[in-house]
Write a structure and sequence with these properties.
Blueprint: H1 4-47, H2 51-64, H3 69-81, H4 85-97, H5 102-115, H6 119-130, H7 137-142, H8 153-166, E1 183-189, H9 191-194, E2 198-207, E3 212-219, E4 224-232, E5 237-244, E6 249-257, E7 260-268, E8 274-285, E9 288-296, E10 304-313
Antiparallel strand pairs: 1-2, 1-10, 2-3, 3-4, 4-5, 5-6, 6-7, 7-8, 8-9, 9-10
Helix pairs in contact: 1-2, 2-3, 3-4, 4-5, 5-6
Length: 316
């Protein structure tokens, strides 16, 4: 059984603990409020591009919160925007070590090193930033801080790499598979349907940095149609979306196989019946292409030729 003395001692200890908690709490809350205020002030200064003010504010935050990658990055950025590139290197390097916006940090470090004429460090940082594909070619080419790098072979190689990343269809083998169809063509019918007479003209042009081909068809009666053709990097298949001026359309899926571009698609035929079409483009020579279309109304059990055309490159 506790004596009255023991009980009194326990109560006093509890009271002291409560008083200590009450006295500490305002201090903690004040410190937290001050930190939030500093952060809000830094963000406001950064947003309105008050670089001197932002640099001071983010320096305080970065030194207080040493693992705050954003604070280190924005401190370095604010210094760099004032033209203080040498001073910006250390905080930007710290942001990079903390893996905060590594592409942006590497790009800014490359700028700072280039201005110091440390070309080796500049190229290393720039190549790191460029390897992700996140830095646009135009941004690198127009950045004045890199002017001193332009005369080096390493610069030309970097630009070529960035160009390939920015415009993959220019060099991708798959994007070139249908190039034999590009050009202006006079189209002649073959066999029973055509009899050798001209049935229309077609012009195929490359667009979107060679990522798509646009077809512009006009038949002998003036009816028109267009198609968009492209290699779908998601499905690894070629697609053609055909639309005619009578409202008809067909969505084709295909591949380049056995020396020809082969498509198959479905559309709604006469009477609302589903019509399946398969279409083959074959390069006959540098100046001629054969387009052959067959149709089926019984889900591919039987096929009927619906178009057999010989493209002859126009000399006009």
């Amino acid at each position: 059984m506790k004596t009255n003395l023991q009980k009194g001692s326990g109560m006093r200890a509890l009271l002291r603990a409560l008083l200590l908690t009450v006295s500490i709490a305002p201090t903690v809350l004040h410190a937290q409020a001050a930190a939030v205020s500093t952060q809000n002030n830094a963000e406001a200064l950064f947003a309105k591009k008050d670089w001197a003010g932002a640099a001071k504010a983010y320096e305080i935050i970065a030194k207080r919160e040493t693992t705050n990658g954003m604070a280190w990055y924005r401190w370095g950025t604010s210094l760099q925007e004032q033209g203080r590139s040498d001073e910006a290197i250390a905080p930007l390097q710290k942001a990079l070590e903390l893996k905060f916006q590594p592409n942006g940090a590497s790009f800014r470090l490359a700028r700072a090193y280039a201005l110091k004429h440390d070309n080796e460090a500049a190229f290393t940082a720039l190549e790191t930033a460029a390897s992700s594909g996140a830095i646009p070619l135009s941004v690198v080419q127009t950045q004045k801080d890199f002017d001193a790098l332009h005369g080096e072979a390493r610069w030309m190689k970097l630009i070529a790499t960035l160009d390939a990343v920015a415009h993959p269809c220019r060099t991708a083998d798959t994007a070139q598979q249908f190039d034999f169809w590009i050009g202006k063509w006079n189209v002649f019918g073959q066999g029973a349907q055509g009899g050798g007479a001209q049935v229309g003209t077609n012009e195929i042009t490359s667009m979107l940095e060679h990522c798509a081909l646009l077809e512009n068809w006009t038949d002998a009666f003036g009816n028109k149609g267009k198609s968009l053709n492209f290699y779908d990097t998601g499905t690894h298949k070629w697609r053609q979306i055909w639309v005619a001026d009578n409202g008809g359309s067909t969505n084709y899926l295909g591949e380049y196989r056995d020396g020809a571009m082969r498509f198959q698609g479905e559309s709604v035929g006469p009477g609302g019946k589903m019509l399946t079409s398969r279409m083959t483009f074959t390069k006959v020579s540098a100046d001629s292409v054969r387009q052959f279309i067959e149709s089926s109304t019984d889900e591919g059990k039987t096929w009927t030729p619906s178009f057999d055309g010989m493209y002859v490159r126009s000399k006009m």
